[in-house]
Amino acid sequence: VMGITARGAWEAVKRHFRELGKDIQSEPFTVVGCGDMSGDVFGNGMLLSKAIKLVAAFDHRHIFLDPNPDPAKSWEERNRMFALPRSSWEDYDKGLISEGGGVFARSLKKIPLTPQVQEILGVTESEMEPTALISAILKSPNDLLWFGGIGTYVKAAAQSHGDVGDPANDRLRVNAEQLRVKVVGEGANLGTTQAGRIAFSLHGGRINTDFIDNSAGVDCSDNEVNIKIALAAAKRSGKLTEDARVELLSAMTDEVAHLVLEDNRLQALALSIAERGGAAAMPAWSRLIDVLEEGGDLDRKTEGLAGAEDLARRAAAGQGLTRPELAVLLSSSKLVLQRALEESTVVDDPVLEEELVAAFPPQMQEDFESEIVHHRLRREIIATKLANRIINRMGPVIPFELCEEEGVSLAQVAAAFVAAERLLDLRKTWDLLDSAQMPETLRLDLFDRVAQGLRGHVADVLRSGRGT
């Protein structure tokens, strides 16, 4: 009902296009995808902008082709289908499909391709087998490839189909180097392999990872658990009745969604800032990889990260880490920092209670402040929120560099971050950079400048008080 997984992935898609100079909430753009309107992620995703021109899609039953859709009318039809108890592409009003398009069963031996379809797919064949047509859809020169269905459809050229481990889709799968879309959004899991993501990025495409794009579902569940634990305590004390609890949970839906989507937005922004470092930042990233490996917090081979020599050669050629690689380091560094905080006394400092309270919807912050402050997961919640903000705002590298340079622990770096952040009132600065009208490249550069400036202040705090 919330459509939170798709909405979270859409934040990542909006970030990609924003950096390409396009507002996909108002400017028409073409989409091809895997899924249908009965699916949670695909269906919700294809309703998140009324500027979508869905020109082709497929699921396990049908192939949908609409070479020149009217954005407004097609959105209304998708919305109608999404509201049906059950639907397939066969339910789409054929009178609304543009000239040359149609809905075709995957059981057909051949599917005719009109000139209009040939153009939007960038092919010359007048007919194709369904499997070949799906591959052509994946390789088509459109704006966005949206994954909302089950299956792995993209791999790197260096990988075999056996490496992928999804034999049901071997005949459909394409190499990342063949993709011609500008952006890939992974609303579903495993739409592409990690090696495929890296290859697509190295060829100029924009993609994160599935665990970044569709993290909102898990995030929402975490928030739900935290909220219900607090409200259960209120119910046990007689402060809240069951009927009132259910009513409050329903009333907080939008606020919970806001908390979750802000996490997705900031993660995508953090990747963009990290990406600005390019080839010049490679030595620092290589050192971070070594530190994480030495601590047993990262397996370079499992995560698809190249060896130090290969990364050095890439840097010499003028290329930095790709977004999929940065995503691995972003998430790994957050987990390490979170664990360090949970094992420290920093999260027990009363000054961080406001971090804990802010992790809950406004409707709870006053009436149930006591239940929040005495939450049985208070330490874990504070550690999670603080680790997320530190890595999102300073990047994965700086906290670990400060540990080595100043001879302190990650928990001490975190404490110094809180002090510096508050002394400089940086939340106001970050909000200003988020809202100001400016070219996106300038915005990212300014965020990076703030992170570098903050680094110096955190180091000063560490030197003066060891972060305590």
Walk me through what this model shows.
The protein is an alpha/beta fold. It is built from 22 helices and 10 strands. The protein has helices at residues 4-19, 40-45, 71-83, 115-121, 130-138, 161-164, 194-202, 210-213, 216-236, 242-251, 253-275, 282-294, 308-316, 323-342, 353-358, 362-365, 369-373, 378-394, 397-406, 410-423, 426-435, 440-465; strands spanning 29-34, 52-58, 62-65, 102-105, 111-112, 127-128, 144-147, 154-155, 174-175, 183-186. A 6-stranded mixed beta sheet has the order 4-3-2-1-7-10, sandwiched between helices. Helix 1 (4-19) packs across helix 9 and helix 11 (253-275) packs across helix 14 (323-342). The longest helix has 26 residues, at 440-465. It is globular and about 75 Å long.
- Put simply, the count of helices is 22
Instruction: State the separation between the terminal residues, measured CA to CA.
Output: 45 Å
Shape: globular
Radius of gyration: 24 Å
Major β-sheet profile = 6 strands, mixed
The strand line-up of the biggest sheet is 4-3-2-1-7-10
Poorly predicted runs of 5 or more residues:
none
Number of strands: 10
Find the structural class using helix and strand composition.
alpha/beta
Strand content: 5-15%
Instruction: Give me the oligomer status.
Output: single chain
Into which percent range does the helicity of residues fall?
40-55%
- Residue-averaged pLDDT, rounded? 96
Quick recap of the structure?
The protein contains 22 helices and ten strands.
